[in-house]
Specification:
Layout lengths: L1 H38 L3 E16 L2 E12 L12 E9 L11 E11 L5 E3 L4 E5 L11 E3 L6 E7 L4 H16 L4 E7 L3 H9 L6 E4 L4 E6 L2 E6 L13 H15 L4
Parallel strand pairs: 3-5, 8-9
Antiparallel strand pairs: 1-2, 1-4, 2-3, 4-5, 4-6, 7-9, 8-10, 11-12
Amino acid sequence: MERLVHALAGCLVCAAGFAAPVVGAAEGTAGKVAASEAMYRVEELVGTLIATQKMYSSDGGMWYKGELRVDEAPGEGSERKAGEVLPIRYQVGSPAKRGSAGLGDQIRVALGSEKAAGGEWVVQGKATVLGRGEFINPGEGAETDVGSPEARILVKMLAPLPPQCHKDTAQLLRELGKQKPERVRVQIFDMVRPAGRRELQRERLHCATVLVNNRYHFTLTTAEGARGVAFHRRPNGPRALYNSEDVIAVVRQEMARLYPEQ
């Protein structure tokens, strides 16, 4: 009987010895799975491309590297913050099609948790272009350039200046630039001239446009209510998307937002 008791005790000890490694293995497996999930986690971000440079073509597409300013914080659990600038590497179709992400575009991207050899975060799949983001991107060769380079607002007008409708907008902008030079910089480009055509191409535009910090679609809030305006094509006509005075109203609206302390 005594031998039987010792034998049973020995079996229990052996069983316990074998059970302990199984628990440890389970914990180790769970840790590896968590690490693997973290390694391949993809996070969606909305941001604006503030720098971009062509790298090389591969697999039928063209690779670029650039800098993405985060415009919207992804939410809880993310280390990303609005205003943070991330180095990224992304691909567009070849040849580049209309709608491909370019300088100043606001885009939605999916970023993995690992970096490329050059230190850039690699965009998974293709970036989705949401529109033009808020961005200050001065040009060269403007007919008019008034206001401080340190101003938080850059108004860039690209239009053929002979038509009276564009002359009206240009004159209002010149006056505003002289009144508020520390807050607003105004650049006016004549599309009839070579410098104006170069700037139009650089901005990837196809007709007369007024850009306020890189954008031309705005919601203008007035005493009569809110309405959408698009500073595109000819103003002031019956089918126009805006009036010359709307540009000044939007700039003042942006001044109130970007200079709230003044």
